[in-house]
Amino acid sequence: MVRGADCERGRWRSVLSDRRQRVLAALIEEYVARALPVGSRTLTERYQLGVSPATVRNELSVLEDGGYITQPHTSAGRVPTDFGYRAFVDNLLSCDLTADDERYRPVVDELRRSASELDALLEQTSSALTRLTDCLSIVLAPSVLNLRIKQLSLVSLTPHRALVVLVTEDGQVFNRQMEFAEEVPSDELARVQRFLGEVMGGKTLQEVEDGLGQGMVEAFRDPLVRMALDEVLSCLQESAPSRAHRLGVSSLLTKPEFSQSQALLPVMRVLEDDTVLLHILDDAARQGAGAPSVRIGSENGAEALSGVSVVASRYGRGASAGVVAVVGPTRMDYSKVIRAVRMASAALEDV
């Protein structure tokens, strides 16, 4: 039985017939389970597709021509492409999975009972996500997305050193020193301060991210601007030391894609960059609570993340909004991960 077959009436990309939907879903399920290229004989023997091997071979050829699957080697079977995963995931998201979410209700109830403090709840939710999905989980605390900046100053101490002073709307004051490899004139520092003041003054980090996506990308590429912004994020980090709860790196190391730690290192380096993390979780923060967003492979934008998918969901409302996410290989069990992320969002809904 193909996973998610109860949703086959959902809206797939219009180019796919019902039979091709079933063949693609079977191929994805098989590849997710075994991490090996899938051939027509395997699909015919293990899945009740109701057609002959010759028909399956023909459908695989059509799916390959359409860009949904690819053949790594001439004599090998096929594997899904990002485009194929996207068609599959779009169908999952168009289906009503509410009934299946009920099996996670005991997990949600237990999380709420066992954690009296927010940090403990975030940590336990991240742990539950990793346990349920066998992937890396990230739970982003509300304060990161919603802490408003009242004033930002860059004070030149020497040509090679400056002080970042940050005042938040709730009266907290933070400062950090910046070190420059080359001399930075005070007027250049003032220019960066004016720019960041205009970009960040009175805004939340989420609103800053929205602005960067609407015409300020070139300015953001300025090394001095980027360096100052990184220091600002580090200041905010001090206000919530455990704001991003990450668990499950060891789970990723068990995946064939990351069996060599060198393959996982670039991914972790990118995910440890706060500005990148906020960017890839941006879709989830824009959506309503419980409505997951899914970025697959190349959709993440960063080259280092081209081999992973990010399933994320917002939780909470207004100033109490945060994000939960699961990061795993593009060959992840999307049905399971989407349900688990929705479970985590539900557990944190009233924080």
UniProtKB/TrEMBL annotation:
<dbReference type="InterPro" id="IPR036388">
    <property type="entry name" value="WH-like_DNA-bd_sf"/>
</dbReference>
<dbReference type="GO" id="GO:0045892">
    <property type="term" value="P:negative regulation of DNA-templated transcription"/>
</dbReference>
<dbReference type="Pfam" id="PF01628">
    <property type="entry name" value="HrcA"/>
</dbReference>
<keyword id="KW-0678">Repressor</keyword>
<dbReference type="InterPro" id="IPR029016">
    <property type="entry name" value="GAF-like_dom_sf"/>
</dbReference>
<keyword id="KW-0805">Transcription regulation</keyword>
<keyword id="KW-0346">Stress response</keyword>
<dbReference type="GO" id="GO:0003677">
    <property type="term" value="F:DNA binding"/>
</dbReference>
<comment type="similarity">
    <text>Belongs to the HrcA family.</text>
</comment>
<feature type="domain" description="Heat-inducible transcription repressor HrcA C-terminal">
    <location>
        <begin position="119"/>
        <end position="338"/>
    </location>
</feature>
<protein>
    <recommendedName>
        <fullName>Heat-inducible transcription repressor HrcA</fullName>
    </recommendedName>
</protein>
<comment type="function">
    <text>Negative regulator of class I heat shock genes (grpE-dnaK-dnaJ and groELS operons). Prevents heat-shock induction of these operons.</text>
</comment>
<dbReference type="InterPro" id="IPR021153">
    <property type="entry name" value="HrcA_C"/>
</dbReference>
<dbReference type="InterPro" id="IPR023120">
    <property type="entry name" value="WHTH_transcript_rep_HrcA_IDD"/>
</dbReference>
<keyword id="KW-0804">Transcription</keyword>
<dbReference type="InterPro" id="IPR036390">
    <property type="entry name" value="WH_DNA-bd_sf"/>
</dbReference>
<dbReference type="InterPro" id="IPR002571">
    <property type="entry name" value="HrcA"/>
</dbReference>
